[in-house]
Amino acid sequence: MDADGKRAAPDGEYDRFKVGQLWLDNRKQHINAHHGGIVFAEGAYHWLGTHCSDLPAGVKYPPSAGNLTEVGVLCYSSKDLYNWKYEGVALPVSEDPGHDMFKGLRIERAKVVYSDATHQYVMWFHYVQSGKTHQESYEAAVATASTVTGPYTYLRKFRPDGGQMCRDCTLFKDDDGKVYFIYASEDNKALRISLLTPDCTDTSGRSARAFVGHYREAPALFKKDGRYHMITSGCTSWKPNAAQHAVATNVLGPWQSTGNPCIGERADTTFNSQGSFVLPVHGRTGAFIFMADRWNTRKLSDSRHIWLPVRFVANDRIAIEYRDEWDLSIFDALM
To answer: Is pLDDT of 130 > 90?
Structure first.
């Protein structure tokens, strides 16, 4: 396939995951939704992630704001997880330099959850304003929409939990409907797990610190058989590093690390990628997919998607093995 992603997939459709290859949507363009997540709603999967633009001409990696968001958060939909339809820009940036969402910002780790209390979809993301210092930026931001595809209305940016720094983040909805915001804080020296208010637009005041002094980011949280699992990465900027898995019987902890869940060649770099989300496969109990980004710092728009099945070795241990190609039937053997 060509680097610009314009060539069609075989027969116009996919019937398996081709890990690390160009992944074309219904327009025959590479799916540009990064460090995002997936929501199953209205009978379909909805993939929302940040559109990554290439660096300006003459700018070399790594600039301090090398991943400025020039478009916004995109949305794609799928019935089978293989083939994706482009649904448009769910959360656009603004052309107004006085607006919080002016396109000079960075939108990172956008995640969406459905609020049972308000029947609204709520998006949280890591907000960074270009040119600001750590003390002036690194906030959480919230937007809402009546439909999962958007458009989302920006509400505000702020430091959650009474003024905590917010960096890489995710959302997790528990079986009881409670929603938690998990984010790297304290200059990445700790992760915070915070219960949200019922409308999912603010932290409730109940939170816990985890992995204090361990410097973890890119959290992805999921649950199986009453146990909470979290996959994180180390803090090496755009350079890949070893993932870490941890398990808990309470979402607020304590969390117990079980080490690197990746197995095989390049396991020490998470297969040359960084995790973003763990997707529960709808209708398949115990089936989960680890989603990651393989960053191309020379051409960010050509960064590739790494999707791999999660295998449960025991109640408190998982394994992620690299595969060039696979399909959902693998879960019949893993379960």
So the answer is: no
Give the DSSP H/E element, type plus range, for residue 163: helix 160-163
pLDDT of residue 245: 98
Structure tokens at 288: 């989960």
Cβ atoms of 313 and 326 closer than 8 Å: no
Name 193's bridge partners. Answer: 182, 208
User: Which domains does the chain show, CATH number per domain?
Assistant: 10-334 (2.115.10.20)
On whether the CB atoms of residues 306 and 293 are closer than 8 A, the answer is yes
The CB-side HSE value for 184 (13 A sphere, CA atoms) comes to 23
Q: Are 193 and 179 in contact (CB under 8 A)?
A: no
C-alpha torsion sign, points 157, 55, 185, 220: positive
The pLDDT assigned to 3 comes to 34
- Name, in order, each residue with C-beta under 8 angstroms of 43's C-beta and a sequence gap of 6 or more: 79
- Using left for φ > 0, alpha for ψ between -120 and 50, and beta otherwise, residue 148 falls in alpha
Is 318 within 8 Å of 312 (Cβ atoms)?
A: yes
Beta strand spans in 148-189 (E): 153-158, 169-173, 179-185
User: CA 188, 194, 199: angle at the middle one, nearest 5?
Assistant: 135
pTM of the model: 0.93
- Going by DSSP bridges, is the β-strand pair 317-321/262-263 parallel, antiparallel, or unpaired? parallel
Sequence-distant (≥ 6) Cβ neighbours of residue 297 within 8 angstroms: 61, 62, 66, 238
Mean pLDDT of 24-45: 97
Predicted pLDDT of residue 67 = 64
Residue 65's pLDDT is: 45
d(CA 125, CA 166): 9
Q: Which pLDDT tens digit goes with each residue over 237-265?
A: 889 999 999 999 999 999 999 999 999 99
